Amino acid sequence: MRIINEPTAAAIAYGLEKQAGWYGKRNVMIFDLGGGTLDVSLLTIGDGVFEVKATAGDTHLGGEDIDNSMVNYCVDQFKSKHNLDVSENPKALRRLRNACEKAKRRLSFTSTIDLEVDCLDRGTDFFITITRAKFEQMNMDFFNKCMEPVDKCLRDADIEITNFHDVVLAGGSSRIPKVQELLRNVFKGMKLCQSINPDEAVAHGAAVRAALLSGRGDGKLQDFTLVDATPVSPGVEVFHNRMKIVIPRNTKVPVVKNCRLTTRHDNQDNVSFAIYEGETVRVKAL
């Protein structure tokens, strides 16, 4: 069994589709914004090799955050109009969340939507019109936060923006026009690659990798090598709840690392290690 990073899987799906017409290497940024996480990877693809140069992301940032923002806005609007608070009504909140999620998707293709929920609370209907401009305004902090891993990835890889060939979108939330606009701004107006289905790209790439590892690949599938990297830094807990990083983030894998540690007390005959991953100095809050 192997584990593959989601943006790397998306890159495989993208690369296999596109590589027939390529000459030389290409620098590609994969931007994977899903329902609950954001993953960004920078790869160099060419000569049958997919090499991950840098990776970054946020495991607590995704489309669900937009849903939460819209739900909170609608709860406030409903309370303002009808003096009814549905924040403690799980059934009403679930129906409202479903309506907000549908509205979010529709706003990727239209400038105005009508959000309506019949009998939301105590027989009272809820109706509101949301424009794309209002949607972008209420979620602007979220959209700006999505660009932070992109900037981090660019710094780690140390590649000039002018040397990029493609920016590939994956994950359903990457369809949001404001997210695409901010990405184009980062990459100086570069056209974003949307030729692969963002909902299927990761699964497609992972399936290709699995076929190759199982020996069932043929022709096209056998014609590439994957050089992956660690998305976060694995390490061990040492004295005073501190984190000792053993394998730095963006290290090429597989890899072997040696690390010398000392015991806390003299004459210890056994040692236990708590393994963590991340970039913080401490593994636990004091």
UniProtKB/TrEMBL annotation:
Quote one Gene Ontology molecular function term: ATP-dependent protein folding chaperone
Q: Does the keyword ATP-binding apply?
A: yes
Which superkingdom is the protein from? Eukaryota
Stored InterPro entries:
ATPase_NBD (IPR043129), Heat_shock_70_CS (IPR018181), HSP70_peptide-bd_sf (IPR029047), Hsp_70_fam (IPR013126)
Q: Give yes or no: UniProt keyword Nucleotide-binding.
A: yes
Which Pfam families does the record associate with it? HSP70 (PF00012)
UniProt keywords, alphabetically: ATP-binding, Nucleotide-binding, Stress response
> What protein name does the entry list?
Putative Heat shock protein 70 family
Task: Record the organism.
Answer: Rosa chinensis (China rose)
